[in-house]
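Q: Predict the bound structure with cobalt (II) ion.
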Amino acid sequence: MAGNIERLKELDSEIQRLSHIAALLSWDQETYMPEGAVEERSEQKALLEGMIHERVTSLEMADIFSKLGISDSNAAVSGLTATDQAFLREAYRRYRLQSKLPTELVRKIAKETSLAVAKWAEAREKADFTIFSGNLETILTLVREKADALGYEEHIYDPLLDEFEPWMKTKELREVFQSVQKGLTALLSRITASGTKVESDFLKREYPVDKQRQLSLSVLKNMGYDFKFGRLDLSAHPFTITLGSTDVRLTNRYDPNFFPKGLFGTIHEGGHGLYELGIAPELHGSLLADGTSMGIHESQSRLWENFIGRSRAFWRWFYPQAKELFPAALADIDVATFYRGINRVEPSFIRVEADEVTYNLHIILRFNLERALVSGDLQVKDLPEAWNQESRELLGITPPDVSLGVLQDIHWSMGGIGYFPTYALGNLYAAQFFRILKQELPLVEAQVEGGNFSAILAWLREKIHSSGRVYTAGELCTRVTGESLNPEYYLQYLEEKYGAIYGI
Ligand code: CO
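A: Predicted complex:
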């Protein structure tokens, strides 16, 4: 048995190396690659992806799993350490997911989504849904085929969700989101009814980009992001990418006339980066050296971005630095006004610009619609109207056109159905973790106010980062907080914070 597991680890470490090489090609493509190289780069990446897929689904791999007695109905082998048990669970999961998808289907999805992304961009530009609707229909057909190939017991959405949030079921998510929706709409209507005005126009003054970058670098250093093992570059959309256990890079972009975009983008990606860099050395080079789910990953970025970065204590420390870099823009703004401004609540059309209170409502809207689309309860032609109706129900507003409504996100054109919920899960997990962090580190607020994040980072490393994928998201949540995912903590956090800001 030990020999089989050792061999599996050898095969896996080669797969990890190939994946990191592929990631380097992607990072380069998004940052410095000359645009003329795009076609050749796609071929290089496709070659590597093919090599990885071949190794993941190889006969040798299949043979080892069968010798170990592992199958869809049994993923456990007795007498192993917790880490080896988790390694087998994840290695088999990867094998199962990749070997169940016919190569022809994978090829079709890749082709159709690359066409669809271009059509989506054109449709959004022209605010004309019909340009993209045929592509979306094709994608939904392929996504349904994918779900059937992967298999499910309850809901066709289950295998799609599982791709991004392993082991989570649609049913559980629906229940969680129902209580989130109830709590959020109640809080939102109280905020709106309060009549309290929060000033935020000053965030749209002139903020020179080079100064914004300086501020970003400063905050990352304080957070404990080590530039010996990472970088911060520019890209069209911010992302964090792992090129190895000692090389985790971040990207960001800045808007000279909107302050929050750049800085909070940096803190967000910094949170993702710290997770990847905090994985225990003994897991390095294996598939366990990764975030355990997208939801948990997002909890780490949101915890830094919102729970710390948008807190009063943080700005008591950081505001003098910001004011020194942007003397003209912030001259007449005191720290209390600034804090309220970056936390202004207002229902808006665009998800990525939404505040902490309305953000999850944007996600629930998408979750409701994509579930209905894949199960066939909603037809693509009726989607724009369904979107507007959900928007009225959840946010009380109707988008003036499809580019501010159903066409605003790229995800569906990429076939990424099942992805959106992980953003909301990130907020919920972050609140649940942060509550325990505050209990175990009673001085946390004073530390943040002093710009000292070392105790927070040490806590996150010990409790969350170091174990990588050893525990599933559900297991990790229970280990750290003593209970499974509970949305009440997010609602309590919002209630307290926004109750104070809006005087309700
Ligand atoms: Co993120």
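A: Residues 498 and 504 are 8 Å apart (CA to CA).
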